[in-house]
Amino acid sequence: MSTFAASTTDPASRPDRQAPAVEVRDLRKTFRRKDRSAGRFKRKRPWPALDDVTFTIARGECVAILGQNGSGKSTLVRLLSTLLIDDGGEARIFGHDVVKDASTIRRLVNRVSVEASFFKKMSAAENLSYAARFYGMTPHQTRKGVPEILNRVGFPAERRGEAMENLSRGMQQKVALARALLTSPVLLLLDEPTTGLDPRSKLEVQEFIRQVRAEHDATILLCTHDMAEAEALSDRVGLLDRGRLLFLEPVEDVKRRFGVQTLEEAFFAATGREFEAEPNDDDEYREVFG
Amino acid sequence: MSEFALETRNQLVGLFGIVERNVYLTKRYFLWDVAFMVWTIANTLTIVFIARSIPSITPAEENTAATALLVGGTIWAFLGIIFEFMTETVAWERWEGTIEYTFMAPLSRLVHLFGQGAFAVLYGLIRATILFFAVAAFIGIHTPNANYPAALGLLALASLSFIGVGIMTSVLPLISPEKGAQLGFVAQGIMLVVSGVYYNVDVMPGWMQAISKISPATYALRGCRASIINGAGMQWADVWPLLIIAVLATPIGLAIFKVGERHAKKHGKLKRSG
């Protein structure tokens, strides 16, 4: 991975080389959602987004967590990104607790989410420079680093100064990948990075993820509901269903265990339900903005 | 480089990043800024013209009244900008969708909010200066005795307090995404109405006068009027309350913000919308 930000990383936030990249034990997170069946006098009831989730990711590994909408994938990513506080259990990144050592974790982790999330009137170069400042990168460093990283993700040089709002979703997602990589994270959290992209952009982003894996010492946690993508990119595949992690194994082991040919069939065997897109059931969103 | 020096350097670069981002956004929204500037000048003129309508006063008294109103209008505009920037720190990021990236970045919250405040003060000062001299020129206000350095010094000191109070209000959209910004504007309005923007605080009821004592705007307005109308220097009676509020407001504001941030993280409110 690029070392643009490496010189600005203080010794305390260097990853513990002995510890696993990610260590999650009995992790729980419960939100409160409005009970729509209660009619006019709606009451909130607890809804477990993560229910005693336990797993480990080794350094340099790429793990995919599959799950339908509302299965808890984004909650997991947001907990590991220090944006949520758990209700129980623990999560450690390179040995650092995500709640107690949040400031250390923040230098080790970056993410790409389903929404590219940029200042829409600012250009790709401006957005990347802004993000890089938070990681201690000076204008001198970003003048060189931003064009380099944009070039690597295949972003056309002549569009670097164009406002983000004028770029396609695929282009925006490339800039999002560039933003995540610019800060040299040792753990990359990818939350549905190709959802909503056209087939060509999707392949380009997947190819870039492969490149990052091949060329750099990064650990990747990929959350997706695209089974083919999970199978193609990861060493192990996990299934998160209604907040519970049903398994996390190499794809071939999963198929062997359930005696099936595809991950869709494995999902059916594990849950008794078809793996299909469920209605958007983002309960956190409902609680906050409803 | 020692750990402390490295961390300090990184935080300063981050602070620069916040200011730099706001410069980029100001450039992109420049025509909106021009429109708001014209609107603010027009709005202030409607207030300052009131001095012309006061019957039976001498031209000198009219000039003094107009200057007092203009100082009030200018500081209202200055404060309004600081509060708007601070209160909407979270709201803007939530709307743009960048809130999660900013809050998961290794930037201390103090630096994050202070960077926003620093830009607001710079931007507010530029606007206030344009506003003051544009209205003064339009109406024909004379300020032969004005002590502008003293007025600017007081505003600079008051700005620290305003940033601290602004940090307190900036937590509101974090706790309540929809109602928080509205509450921030309510807080701004209350602070200004008790501070004697266009009148002396002693014309208000006793309970409002009591509240005015904890508002930094009270001392900024009183001091600036004295400097611009009478040429007074920075008066200790205005300086010491501003110093105390400045010293207390930022740590209290930051502590409140941290409690709010923890609440937001606990309840999943630290996320985008729009």
Can you give a write-up of this model?
The complex is a heterodimer of chains A (290) and B (274). In chain A, 35% of the residues lie in helices and 23% in strands. With 290 residues, chain A is of the alpha/beta class. Chain A has a domain at 20-117 and 187-289: P-loop containing nucleotide triphosphate hydrolases (Rossmann fold), CATH 3.40.50. A six-stranded mixed β-sheet of chain A has the order 6-7-8-3-9-10, sandwiched between helices. A four-stranded antiparallel β-sheet of chain A has the order 2-1-4-5, with helices on one face. In chain A, helix 3 packs across helix 4 (139-152), helix 3 packs parallel to helix 5 and helix 4 crosses helix 5. The N and C termini of chain A lie far apart (41 Å). Residues 1-8 and 279-290 of chain A have low confidence and may be disordered. Chain B is mainly alpha-helical and 274 residues long. Chain B has one domain (3-267). Chain B contains eleven helices and no strands. Chain B has helices at residues 3-28, 30-48, 59-96, 99-103, 109-139, 148-170, 172-175, 179-193, 206-212, 216-230, 236-267. In chain B, helix 2 runs antiparallel to helix 3, helix 3 (59-96) runs antiparallel to helix 8 (179-193) and helix 5 (109-139) crosses helix 6 (148-170). Chains A and B meet through helix 2, helix 3 and helix 10 of A and helix 1, helix 4 and helix 11 of B.
Blueprint (SSEs and pairs):
The complex is a heterodimer of chains A (290) and B (274).
Chain A (H helix, E strand, L loop, with lengths): L21 E13 L9 E14 L4 E5 L6 H8 L7 E6 L2 E2 L4 H7 E4 L11 H10 L5 H14 L16 H14 L4 E5 L7 H17 L3 E6 L2 H7 L2 E6 L2 E6 L1 H8 L4 H9 L11 H7 L1
Parallel strand pairs in A: 3-8, 3-9, 6-7, 7-8
Antiparallel strand pairs in A: 1-2, 1-4, 4-5, 9-10
Helix pairs in contact in A: 3-4, 3-5, 4-5, 8-9
Chain B lengths: L2 H26 L1 H19 L10 H38 L2 H5 L5 H31 L8 H23 L1 H4 L3 H15 L12 H7 L3 H15 L5 H32 L7
Helix pairs in contact in B: 1-5, 2-3, 2-5, 3-5, 3-6, 3-8, 3-10, 5-6, 6-10, 6-11, 10-11
